[in-house]
C-alpha cells in the first residue's frame, strides 16, 4: 500500500508530465546542478574501490545513472510507471557503466528490500524536498545498507531562498532561540515542514539515532534551492 507521498507522486507523474520531465532532464544534463551532484556521486562510488550494489530512491528518468562507477547492481525505485518507462533509456545512456540495472515501480516508504543488500543508497532532489526526510525513511535505509555502507542525499535547507518567507515562518524563526523543551521541538518540526526541509542541526539529530555517522555535510546553492549535500556511513 502506498503512502500519501507515494500516492501524491503517482498522481503527478503521469505520462504527459513524465515526457516533459525527461525533456527537461536532457536539457539540463550538462548544467551546473546535474554536474555538481553527478560528480559527487561519481566520487562516492569510486571511493569504494570495489564493485558495489546501489539503490537510487526516487530515480525518476534515470538522471544520475551515468555518474555511477564500480556498480555491479543498480536498483532504481520510483512510484511512477511513466517515469520508469523513460528511465529504460536513461539520460547520457552511453556513459552508463553499471553492469545490471533493475527498475522497480514502488513506494519506498512501504516497499522493503533485504537487510544489508546495498553498499550505497542515494537520493537526489527527493527526500527533504518532495517527500519527508524523517525517522521512518532513515530507519529503512539503515536496514537496507550493509555495515559500513553509505547514505548520500540532498535536502532543501529551510533558509533556502526558494522557501516562501511568510510572516508565520519569520515569527517562528525569531522565537526558536528563546524556546525550550517540547515547544522548541514542535516549533523546529514546523519550520522543517514535517521533514520537507532539513538543516544541519536536524541531520545531526536524525541520522545518529539510526546508527549513522555523518562524514560530510555541505551546502550548495543552485539556481533553484539552497541544498544540503550529506553523506552518512552506517556503523
Explain the overall architecture.
The protein has 235 residues and is α/β, with parallel strands linked by helices. It has helices spanning 4-12, 15-28, 32-47, 81-87, 135-144, 167-175, 181-191, 200-206, and strands at residues 52-57, 71-78, 101-105, 118-123, 145-156, 212-221, 226-234. The protein has a 7-stranded mixed beta sheet. Helix 4 links the parallel strand 2 (71-78) and strand 3 (101-105). Helix 2 runs parallel beside helix 4.
State the main characteristics:
235 residues; alpha/beta; Rossmann fold; 7-stranded mixed sheet; 8 helices; globular
For CATH, the homologous superfamily is named as: Vaccinia Virus protein VP39
Strand order of the largest sheet: 3-2-1-4-5-7-6
Relative helix content: 25-40%
Shape: globular
Largest sheet: 7 strands, mixed
CATH architecture: 3-Layer(aba) Sandwich
Q: Quick check: average pLDDT? A: 90
Number of domains: 1
Question: At the third CATH level, what is the topology name?
Answer: Rossmann fold
Q: Tell me the fraction of residues in β-strands, as a range.
A: 15-25%
Low-confidence stretches: none
Number of helices: 8
Order of helices and strands: HHHEEHEEHEHHHEE
> Could you give the count of β-strands?
7
Q: Indicate the CATH class.
A: Alpha Beta
CA-to-CA gap between the ends? 31 Å
The structure class reads alpha/beta
The whole-angstrom Rg is 18 Å
Amino acid at each position: 500500500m502506498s503512502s500519501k507521498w507515494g500516492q501524491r507522486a503517482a498522481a503527478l507523474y503521469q505520462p504527459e508530465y513524465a515526457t516533459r520531465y525527461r525533456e527537461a532532464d536532457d536539457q539540463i544534463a550538462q548544467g551546473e546542478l546535474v554536474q555538481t551532484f553527478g560528480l559527487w556521486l561519481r566520487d562516492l562510488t569510486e571511493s569504494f574501490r570495489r564493485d558495489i550494489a546501489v539503490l537510487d530512491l526516487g530515480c525518476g528518468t534515470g538522471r544520475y545513472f551515468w555518474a555511477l562507477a564500480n556498480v555491479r547492481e543498480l536498483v532504481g525505485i520510483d512510484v511512477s510507471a511513466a517515469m520508469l518507462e523513460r528511465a529504460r533509456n536513461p539520460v547520457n545512456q552511453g556513459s552508463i557503466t553499471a553492469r545490471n540495472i533493475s527498475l522497480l515501480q514502488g513506494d519506498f516508504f512501504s516497499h522493503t528490500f533485504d537487510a544489508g543488500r546495498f553498499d550505497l543508497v542515494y537520493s537526489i532532489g527527493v527526500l527533504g524536498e518532495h517527500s519527508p526526510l524523517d525517522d521512518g525513511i532513515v530507519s529503512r535505509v539503515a536496514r537496507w545498507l550493509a555495515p559500513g555502507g553509505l547514505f548520500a542525499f540532498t535536502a532543501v535547507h529551510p533558509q533556502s531562498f526558494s522557501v516562501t518567507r511568510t510572516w508565520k515562518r519569520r515569527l517562528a524563526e525569531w522565537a526558536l532561540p528563546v524556546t525550550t523543551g517540547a515547544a522548541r521541538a514542535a516549533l523546529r518540526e514546523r519550520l522543517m515542514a514535517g521533514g520537507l526541509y532539513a538543516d544541519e542541526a536536524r541531520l545531526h539529530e536524525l541520522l545518529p539515532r539510526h546508527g549513522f555517522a555523518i562524514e560530510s555535510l555541505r551546502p550548495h546553492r543552485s539556481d533553484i534551492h539552497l541544498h544540503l549535500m550529506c553523506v552518512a556511513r552506517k556503523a
